[in-house]
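Technical note accompanying the year-one report. For the benefit of new consortium partners, we illustrate the data format agreed upon in the data management plan: each record pairs a sequence with a C-alpha cell string. No post-processing was applied to the example shown here.
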Amino acid sequence: MDLSLTDRALPEQLPEWGVLVLESHHSSKFVMEWRTHSFVKIVYVLSGRGTFFIGKKEHLFTAGDVIVVPPGTRNRIVDDPVCASSLYVCCLARRVLRFDVSLIAQLPCGVLTRGGAFAHRVESVVRRMVHTQQSTTRMRPIAMMTDALKLIQMIIEKSRETQRIAKGSTEYRRLVQQYIDSLPNRFFEETSIDAAADQLDIPRRTFTKLFAEIAGDTWLRYLRRLAIEHAQHRLRDTKIPITSIAFECGFNDLSTFYRQFNRYSGMSPGEYRASAVLKIRNA
C-alpha cells in the first residue's frame, strides 16, 4: 500500500504568512466531510475526476481543471468511484489580499475548465509553489505570496475572458453605443483606447471595430473632433483665455491644441475667436 495516499481530506492550517499548498493524493477510499474556511482555496487537478460540491452547486472536474472556492463557502469533494483524484490545494488568507479587498469578489466560484495556455501557466506556478514551500530559505514567505498573487491574477483574467466571450457581440455593441453616447459629456477624461476597452471589459480589437462601425470614425479622431467642437463653442461664447480652453478640452500641451484645432478648423484658435466676434457684429 502506498502510504502517500490519503483516505481523508488534509488539515488546512495556514502558516503565519498566509499561503499554504497541500498535495492531496487520494486513495480509492477517500472521503471528505463538508468544510467551510475563512481563506480562498484554489485547487489544481493533477489527475482523476469527480464532483466538487461548492455551496448548493455541483461541479464536475477532471485533470487540468482549476477549482475556486471563495471564503465562507461550504465545500467537499467526491471522487469518481473508479478514478480517484490527485490535487494541489492552494490556500490563501484574506489578509494577503487586504491591499485590494475587491479581488475576492472578482474571483469566480466553481470550475475553470482546462484550456491550453491557462492550464500550463497555472501548472507552472503551482509546481513552483510546491518547490518553494519545501525550501528553507528566508525568502520562502515572500516567494509563496508572490506566486499566490500571480495565481489570483491569472484566475481573475481567465474569468473575465470567459465572461467577455459569454456576452457576445450584441452585448458588446450595446456597451460601445452607450459609451459613445456618453462621450460628449466626458471626452476630456479619456486617456487611451486600451483604457476605454478595459473600462467596458471588451477586447481591444472588438472595441476598435465596433467603435468605428457605430461612430463612423476612429476612437482618436472622434475624441479630437468632440474636443475641438467644445473649444469652438467656448471661443465663440466666452472670453476665457485660450490656455484655459485647451485645458478644458483635455490638452496638456498648448502647441498640440493649436495644431489639432488648426487641422479641424482651418485656422488658429485666435483667428477663430476673432472671426466669430466679427460675425456677431455684422449680424
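Partners are asked to follow this layout when depositing records. The first strand starts at residue 6 and ends at 8.
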